[in-house]
Amino acid sequence: MNNNTVFLRIQLAKRFLQGIINRNLADIIDKIPVDLFPKKGGSYRCCIYKDRAITRYRLMALLGFSIEEETDETRPLKEYAEKAGSRQGAPDGPVLTLIDAACHSCPSGRHTVSNLCRGCLARNCASVCPRDAVSFVNGKAVIDHEKCVNCGKCREACPYNAVVYTPVPCEAACPVGAIRKNEDGSALIDHEKCISCGQCSISCPFGAVMERSHLYSIARDLLGPESERPVALVAPAAAGQFPGGFGQLTTALRQAGFAAVVEVAWGAAETVRKEAEELAEHLKKGKPLASSCCPAYTEAVRLHCPDFAPHVSTAPTPMAASAAWAKEGWPDRRTVFIGPCIAKRVEARHDKSADLVMTFEELASLFLAMDIDVAECSESGTDNPRVDRFERLFARAGGVSQAVLTYAGETLGREPEVLRIDGLDKKALAKLRLIASGKLSADFTEVMSCPGGCICGPGTVADPRVSSRRLDEYAEEKNLALSAAGQKSAG
């Protein structure tokens, strides 16, 4: 974890969870901003009072509330905590919320000329500009921002790399143009366009974009009667997120209070089987097929590329398949998906699969609050049937298509043409539209919204390079899962 924003969020969530664990959250929650930013302490912003105000809004998001919908700034957090306590399940409405006070009102993305400009004779920058926006003053290039359309041709033409482009991080990261600057210069999320991919939350250096957390409900269930404690559905991307192996993570989750632990990689077996069957049928009919397991991408198709929808597989996602299986074994317990993905909250709400969702970042906060060290835990098996290697590799870009093609084998009749989209952006969406219109050929398209796959999701806490290596090790591990019969009796 090399991002101070992530570190601060984890520490705040830890304090928040300690209040729930000690059953005094309502008494201490309004003091947390002051404790974190005391009168004689340092500040990240202009003053401690702004830091306190921003921390207050972060706590609102941790309680599951939309910050944009706040109508009374004087309302104490204690009242929000009491209201959250009466909520059944996950909060309704948009997944992401934006802290206006935390947004730094970044200047609009623009090209500027740095002091590297040598005022050369060629003046390529001025020659290629389609709007005559580049002129020379005192022998140096100057860009007229009233004329400039940010095409970038001057930057590409400069032999000294003297022209630089400064983007608005959240706007540049959003693949569907769902976040923009309002009249005051602060960011604004258009929830009619938003696919909840979380790329804006990763890119914002000020941590102004927050997800509306399910932590309060999850912690309450973990501390409730043993007969009501939830079942953990753990995504394969968990490999490498915490010190120790997957077996140690399983033990840590049980120590945290989860009644059972299910590898979501096991649910991927159903996804692979169904997608392989559909691919064989589509090949016979000469129709393209696309993967279905990334919820940010399927939301993008639903909202921005509906013509592609008929080509998306109807296979249940690994989370949905695992949740359905867990509900059969433990019908009276809620299921909690634990993974790297913010958009899984959208999937859970639409498909009524997992009851609650938490990220690895939130799980790290929970372990800290409960003083659980994964590396010190012994190994234990999960409560699902055996998992195969390829199903565990779903977490990496290319893993889904590899698993589907391996499972299908010779039943396909021929080698299918595969398109792998590693990271969703405007160009990727354009490719999907071309496939839908028949202008681009691809028998099977795998789409991962996050570049690199789930191991690079917005809810991760580990270096993706470490996670990728650990994922390989995890895929080859001796399977510690219990038998299905053992699971049924455990339920």
For the biggest β-sheet, the strand order reads 10-9-12-13
* Shape field: globular
Using the coordinates above, name the CATH class of the largest domain: Alpha Beta
Helices and strands: which structural class? alpha/beta
Low-confidence stretches: 479-491
Oligomeric form = single chain
Report on the structure:
Keywords: Iron, Iron-sulfur, Metal-binding. GO terms for molecular function: iron-sulfur cluster binding; metal ion binding. Residues 139-168, 185-214 form the 4Fe-4S ferredoxin-type domain. It comes from Marispirochaeta aestuarii. The protein is of the alpha/beta class and 491 residues long. The protein is 40% helix and 12% strand. The protein is built from 21 helices and 15 strands. The strands form six sheets. A four-stranded parallel β-sheet has the order 10-9-12-13, with helices on both faces. The protein starts with a helix and ends with a helix.
Descriptive terms for the model:
iron, four-stranded parallel beta sheet, single chain, 491 residues, Alpha-Beta Plaits, metal ion binding, 3 domains, alpha/beta, iron-sulfur cluster binding, Fe-only Hydrogenase (Larger Subunit), Chain L, domain 3
